[in-house]
Amino acid sequence: MAVPKKRQSRTRTATRRAQWDVIQAPTLTLCANPACRAPVRPHRVCGACGMYRGKQVLAVAAPAGDASTAAE
After folding, report:
1. What contacts 38, CB < 8 A, 6 or more positions away?
2. What are the sequence ranges of the domains in the chain?
3. 16, 19, 27, 41, 58 from 23: Cα distances, Å
4. Cys staple from 50: which of 20, 22, 44, 60, with CB 3.0 to 4.6 Å?
5. Is this structure's pTM higher than 0.90?
6. Tell me: the pLDDT tens digits for 20-68?
């Protein structure tokens, strides 16, 4: 079994433990679709337009506000 050669100082121990509770904001990129440009998490499909890496992979329904326009 591995055994540490030297004792860690209180500062090093506290610094390591302090990182346990750190919550980082998720990184965001812009959608590759030039018409959309919505913020999207990396390596995920855009929820606004359904595009992933320049291809349409998800059929997105029209927003509820456009239903009255479609009826006309």
Report:
1. 30, 31, 46, 47, 48, 49
2. 26-63
3. 14, 9, 12, 16, 31
4. 60
5. no
6. 888 888 899 999 889 999 999 999 999 999 999 989 998 988 766 555 5
Give the distance between the most distant pair of CA atoms in the chain: 78
pLDDT of residue 61: 83
Cα–Cα distances (Å) from 20 to 25, 27, 51, in that order, read 15, 19, 35
| pLDDT greater than 60 at residue 12 | yes
Closest alpha carbon to 53 in 64, 40, 62, 65: 40
Tokens, residue 13: 């121990």
Q: What are the distances in angstroms from CA 19 to CA 22, 33, 40?
A: 5, 37, 26
**Cross-strand bridge partners of residue 61:** none
